[in-house]
Backbone:
């Protein structure tokens, strides 16, 4: 029997829940059943369910296997330490792990065909912006959505002027 998982901080639990939500959202976007993804990732359907809930007792290898089975990758990045004079509302260059459609109205309009989820991966959001940029109402873009588009363009190498 595996050892009991160590106590996890609230921050760790929140990050695991976000990862699990992202994995579940990708599975739903792809229209795959939990059983099919679990089999492809080499785990039980119950373990996949626990993983999608963000339970800390699921192994890191299981998270990676599920992500890879869905065409996702998990990267580790150093978190910058906030400075005393840092503007916490300034999100230039910042991309969320999961992009909520309700937070970006223009993306919501462009992603009318997306059903079953209210969040997209950064790759999916960029693809929608890039393919449907001609339908964007640039004058109606919020500052946060413009910053998101610019950040996605820098990461995925696109021309944000066309979007």
Residues:
């Amino acid at each position: 029997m595996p050892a009991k998982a160590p106590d996890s901080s609230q921050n760790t639990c929140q990050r695991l829940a976000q990862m699990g939500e992202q994995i579940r959202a990708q599975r739903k976007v792809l229209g795959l059943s939990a059983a099919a993804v679990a089999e492809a990732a080499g785990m039980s359907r119950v373990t996949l369910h626990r993983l999608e809930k963000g339970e800390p007792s699921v192994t890191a290898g299981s998270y990676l296997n599920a992500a890879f089975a869905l065409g996702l990758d998990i990267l580790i990045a150093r978190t910058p330490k906030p400075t005393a004079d840092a503007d916490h509302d300034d999100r230039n260059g910042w991309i969320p792990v999961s992009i909520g459609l309700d937070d970006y109205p223009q993306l919501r309009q462009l992603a009318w065909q997306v059903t079953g989820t209210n969040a997209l991966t950064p790759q999916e959001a960029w693809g929608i912006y890039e393919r449907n940029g001609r339908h964007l109402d640039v004058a109606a873009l919020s500052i946060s959505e413009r910053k998101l588009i610019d950040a996605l363009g820098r990461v995925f190498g696109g021309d944000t002027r066309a979007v």
User: Anything to note?
Assistant: Residues 99-156 form one domain.
